Amino acid sequence: MRFTILIDNNPNPKEKLLTEHGLSIFIESQKTKILYDTGNSDAFIKNVVKLGINIKEIDYLVLSHGHRDHTGGLGAFLEINKKAVVFLSERIKNQSFYSTKLSDPKDISTDHSLFNKYKNRFEFISQNGLINDNIALIASFNQIYPVPKGNRHLLTEINNNLIPDNFSHEIALTLKQGDKIVVFSACTHNGLLNTLNAASSYWKNKSIILFAGGTHLLDSNSAIYENKEEISTIANTFRSEYPDAMLITGHCTGKRAMDQFEEKLGGKFDRFFSGYSKSL
What we know:
Elements: E1 2-7, E2 24-29, E3 32-36, H1 43-51, E4 60-62, H2 68-71, H3 74-80, E5 85-89, E6 97-99, E7 106-107, H4 113-117, E8 122-125, E9 129-132, E10 135-138, E11 154-158, E12 161-164, E13 172-177, E14 180-184, H5 192-203, E15 208-212, H6 228-241, E16 246-249, H7 255-265, E17 269-271, E18 277-279
Helix pairs in contact: 6-7
């Protein structure tokens, strides 16, 4: 298995690739090619050309949740790729999402018009399930551990009222390699440890060897987000519960959290960026 970050907030230190506040990951597993999210725009497609990846050959697209920085390139993808099945939560279809982080409520929803324009391309899911024998989507998360404090800025609309988003529309992508599990989660609004617990419980296996994605552990000059001690607790629990696992993160993980993870996990930690690639 090999995965490549098609676009991310963080720039490639060597190649001239586009960046944006968004995430898109290409995963090639045996004979299956998967795209996990489409970034905030069509910029990931421009990077794909430089990276030598043919998105026409992608078999499945999985959308992690209903925010535009992960679904903004969906229309551009569907125009080029004519065969991929698109998996996403049924809770996205008629739902609007808003952010209050930098302003009054800003609409950050998926473009719902695409669901009618390409209605035969979508498969809406409401629970955990297999794509094939070795690939599963995780849509149910038990709140055993705290969720990211940055979720407080994110809302959804119910009956014309804005309420806190519970992220029941989030989906993690998991792949089984022999008796080992690989987990991808774009923003991990349900929490890193809750997501790993859900993946391990689904596969009835704690042998997770990789988590790749954002953690939504944001930076701040105030105390509204996780402090050093809270991040340290997450890192220590990750290390003790999943001793074989490597954590590779970027996108919505703040520098403070990355530094803490690196300190605690050492060689079991890495930072991704546009064009980052790793084989397992």
